[in-house]
Amino acid sequence: MKCFVTGSNSIFPFFIFIFFIISNQVSISAENTVNMVEGLFYLDETPVSVEITEGKISKIIRKDRLDDPANEKIYIAPGLIDNQVNGYAGVSFSFGGSDLSVEGVRKATRALWKDGVTAYLPTLTTNSHEILLKNFGIMSQAINDPEISGSIPGFHLEGPFISPIDGYRGAHPQKWVRSPNWEEFLELNRASGNNILLVTLAPETEGALEFIRNCRKNGIVVALGHHNGSPEIIKQAIDEGAALATHLGNGCANSINRHLNPLWPQLADDRLSISIICDGFHLRPEEIQVFYKAKGNDRTIIVSDVTHFAAMPPGIYKGKEGETIELTTDGMLRYPEQNVLYGSASPITKGVGHIMKVTGCSLAEAVQMASTNTARLYGLDDRGEIEPGKRADLVLFSIENYVLQIKKTIVAGKVVYEAEN
Fold first, then answer.
1. What is the pTM of this model?
2. Could you give the domains of the chain?
3. Which of 127, 273, 325, 360 has the most CB atoms around its CB within 10 Å?
């Protein structure tokens, strides 16, 4: 699609899939290999069977009816690809002093598989240089881990090169916010194994435009986020190669000028795609409707922006500074002392159903925004669609009242999650 700026494939590692027996939740072995699945094709809701050979889709067969009546309400779609995952199932990718480890990344990945996510970008946020170096070093070990099955194509660095201003900075700690520094970034990228695919920054900060230019020369996608850029600066940033607006409508001050604010120029420029958090809490339905009408399904990416509280039971928790955090039964993560959101705790599957509900878009369009568009943004030509020759990253699910129930998740032809009957 013309609207996406595709990064160089040279930065992607070659994934060697060697599968071992892992936790009692998921066992990857020869028995988990699947040769065929059937259900309703997500693009047109007609019966199909998808044949899989050596981890890739080999054939899509149209059928008059499904062989197993139990599959009549089961959809087959490409596995979801989440552009922004700060942590999951109690594992944080960003915290300093955390117990981040390769095993922790495995745990988070297995939990994401249960929610239909077959690929994701672990997102490291604003922190000290030392902690970012340490955590990227650990993540670089995990990216090629055979038990993770190639589910991590690369990383997202959100900050520290963002606005220091309250509101636009969001929950990022002010003391670690700093201007873009190319040499610092190169050191972080080396620690990651040269696997940083996306950088979110504020274009109005000193040196940002040159930084964007350097990223594009090196095949790294740049997103604008947590910023208060003027229309002129936003245009310059897009001219230099910025391709995405990170979680548009969030990372923004509560009170803004109705004419001069960062939202209008980002919505108006057709060269810029947007990512949005569709968990039912971060954006009002009317905001999602307007954003969707402005960008359409070709230039919209659904993200979860989940924290490590996702996939944890409702209850009261402590944040990294000891603050009291509440995870409600409906999935809201809130900071009671200030009565504000504390991040997201809802998987991207919720976003698929929610955007269908509030915009009236089709399942096919919602899946495009939660999988296909993200794959295209990063040049991941082997996934994000169901076509012969693509990697067999698939999710099978039912949907009722705009809620997706994951039945089976397949990564490179292996069943990595199957719901109990």
1. 0.91
2. 19-76+394-418 (no CATH), 80-377 (3.20.20.140)
3. 273
